[in-house]
Amino acid sequence: MMEFKRIGIIGGGVMGGGVACNAAQLGIHVIIVEKDEPSATFSKEQLSESLDREIAKWGITESDKRSILSRIEYTIDLHDLADVDFVLDCTPEIYDVKVSIVERLKMIIPKEIIIATNTGVLSVTDLSSKLENVDRLVGLHFHYPVPDRKVVEVVRGLNTSDRAIQVARDFVQTLKKEAVEVFEYPGYITTRAIVPFLNEAMHIVMEGIATIEDVDKAMRLGYDLHMGPLELADSIGLHTVLAWMEHLFKELGESRYRPCPLLRKMIRANKLGRKTGEGFYKYNEKGEKIV
Amino acid sequence: MKILTLNCGSSSIKFDVIETDLELIQQGADYSIVRGLVEKIGLPGSQIRYTYNGESYKDVVEILDHTEALKKIIDVLTGDSPHILESLEEIAGVGHRLVHGAEVFSKSILIDEEVEKQVDECSEFAPLHNPQNLKGVRIAKEFFPNVAHVGVFDTGFHHSMPPYAYIYPLPYYFYRKYKIRRYGFHGTSHRFVSFRVGQLIGIPREKLKIITVHLGNGCSICAIDHGKSVDTSMGITPLEGLMMGTRTGDLDPAVILHIMAKEDLSLHQADTMMNKHSGLYGVSGISNDLREIIEVMDNETEGVNRARLAFDMFCYRVKKYISAYMGVLGGADVVVFTGGIGENAWQVREVATHGLDFMGIRIDPVQNREILGREGDITAEGATVRTFVVPTNEELVIARDTVRCMEGVL
User: In chain A, what are the domains?
Assistant: First the structure.
């Protein structure tokens, strides 16, 4: 199995920061590339706060936090990734942003180094076509919150080599997670399966069949789920859920992926879920649900 | 011959070079030439510290991984100033501390590929330790390809426990299916101090009933009947038994299920809470270091003095186990304190043995305060059970077992 000593992550948001944390905790040195100094400072603060939350939940100690942070360095220069073992792009799922990153990486990262892009929807095949060695790009779909979610989808694009898949699998295993391999197709497994489920729960509420709380309670207790679909949608972010649905609807054209009008309405009211303090539920400043 | 001992942790390597052979072991004349510690491997401030000829040395230098760390140790051993070894050829064997040998390894063993595989399989019981120990073995084999590498297990000494001491009162199914049982730890320490106290008394441990109390970062206690461990406080992991710096020790298991449900904790969070946020630190809220707790525990404070509470709990639990093991052994001849706390914290020894006169244990208050960090008899006059302080020396056990394995006499 490949040993990862030093990795590069582009974008230190919740996903990039989460993977960085996970890796650093296991002794891997991480370089996070941000677009500018203010973003780097912001990412650093966010990461520190997320580690404080984990301390409050007894998951790590103060000294673990110091040791994790000591293994993560921030830069705004992609050239600082020239000597890493593995690169993971965790920039937002905006096509132009990812294309620009991939095009710049091909000039900097040695040809034998595998590049992964964290995406739930974008086409790995399309992005790989921007590289000289098209076969070294692989998709990885992490789930939020990264340290707690034990599965990662490893996405094989049309050009992705077996070696790239193996390196990506090794990376996932190094993070002590399970890898599932999927061929590139809209929504892979997890997004495609969860979207109609969330959408249907919203329809039940919109049609006045049951209250938000009762829909969640029924699904949670009826199917032994950790949280109900509407609370889950809040925690993912309603705008993200909408983006997934629109993508699936556009790509596959099937009505089962058509976004529920209630979802659009809530987004127009800026009720995006936990991150804005209100979605289907209300949340305090710490992101805890107000009962 | 010179034996290198290695104790590989996640960010540290303890090392020792010991001059020993069968004759020196017989005479008890084997000795450490140089001992030291590489710490903070892969972290800022990594350094190597060692003691040679009574002089202490320290070098703060970037050490990114365990390979570099071992290279640094070799540089120290073969360097010019101080000049310790003529060449690496002088190292005749390497002894490795291995934490968990489960039911597979009852004694120390020459490490070949098959053994490495089996140690790896035991990792499920010690996921933080065995993989690191094995990493040390593999790296050391690269640097010392032509000498014997011997593994000495923390669990090995406790293999003599009877089933009624090591089986948990769970459905027997779990023992059969997963080998869930008490294994015990600190075996090399309990083994060494019980052997050494026999020498000090002039009666071999094979003729004694001994309770060894190892109080350090981790704490455990062992009932040794005529040289054999018959019970010990740590269990399938080092979490059970005595209260420790950051570990709970014994606890009603239902407490954890209750807290997990109330606080919505994951398995990992609950595990970390019990291992890293509890014990002296969790109760006192001050420190996991008993010295710091003792320093402030008599200060006047309003409300509950949590430092005092932590200290009292710590000592109380030691006393409870000593008393239990007196029963297990049907009375003991000797109680031995060892480990950083056991060797130095006279306050703990005083409180933990207080009131045990009825079973023959009474320590001399003056001697107890004087014997700090060194061997000594702290028994009060008239006590029928003798109490000793014996600094542990796990490295010596590892080196001696390495020689014995190499000579085929283990």
Answer: 6-183 (3.40.50.720), 190-276 (1.10.1040.10)
